[in-house]
Amino acid sequence: MADEVVMKCIGFAAGHECPALGQYLKSYDPDGDALTGLSVWTWDVNEAIHFADAGAAFACWNQVRKSDPVRLYDGKPNKPLTAMSITVEKFLPRTMPLCIVCGKLASELEEYTQVAKEEGIEVADYVAREEGTFNSSNGHFACTDCYLFKLGSPVGGSRRRWIAP
Ligand SMILES: [Zn+2]
Hints:
- The chain is α+β, with helices and mostly antiparallel strands.
- The chain contains four helices and six strands, in the order E-E-E-H-E-E-H-H-E-H.
- The strands form three sheets. Strands 1-4 form a two-stranded antiparallel sheet. Strands 2-3 form a two-stranded antiparallel ribbon.
- The protein is elongated, with a radius of gyration of 19 Å.
- Zinc ion binds near residues 99, 104 and 146.
């Protein structure tokens, strides 16, 4: 438990832009549906797969797709996740609220740190009290920029406010 590690994506091995860059592996099925994607990545380290050690993480990364074990173009083993470069980090639980859209912690966002400082309270407490999208069960929220411009100001069901999943 003490030495659990998580896998972080550091980009596509081939170098082109990777949507999972900087995120943690949440699930991976090398034999899943290639159309919907075999891996799921998350900004939230608390939701990441916790591996016993780096060896276990690399063994996961190195898995061969059993239903399609050989790459046609070069005859080498087909290991889908190795399309991404990864690094392994020690798991440190996150306690600061997290914007699940941009991956920033509340402590990195001026809109929260400024006011919390002025009020003399903790940033996490300020977000829990004032941020309408805050989900108290997992510490997720959407910062103002992400809520307005990336999500398009969603509303919850029955005119209730929208809460980050
Ligand atoms: Zn954000």
